[in-house]
Amino acid sequence: MGIGVSIFFLTIGAILKFAIEPDVLGSSVHIDIIGVIFMIVGAVGMLLSFFLLSRRSTVSEGELQHRENPPSV
Question: pLDDT by residue (tens digit) across 21-42?
Fold first, then answer.
């Protein structure tokens, strides 16, 4: 999950939690709880994206070794 998808989940979760009345779909569906779950998923996804992004940048920093005279056969 990328940073964009994480921001999308955070936004949808915040809309469901704070902008929609909890009893819109009746008493059997709790929209505010679904919003909290979406926000948690978005936050965890964003943390994982940042962690993997920082890890990828350290792996790509390697030294290139060049040989002047290749071994003759």
Answer: 877 777 788 898 999 999 999 9
Residue 10 has pLDDT above 90, yes or no: yes
Q: Residue 29 is encoded by which pair of tokens?
A: 């569906």
**pTM given for the model:** 0.68
- Please tell me the chain's helix, strand, coil percentages from 3-state DSSP, rounded to the nearest 5: 65, 0, 35
- Nearest 5°: phi and psi at 22? -65, -25
Name every residue whose Cβ is closer than 8 Å to that of residue 24 and which is 6 or more positions away in sequence: 31
Are 39 and 19 spatial neighbours (Cβ–Cβ below 8 Å)? no
Q: How far apart are CA 31 and CA 17, in angstroms?
A: 7
Burial class of residue 68, CB neighbours in 10 A (0-12, 13-18, 19+): exposed
Tokens, residue 38: 């979406």
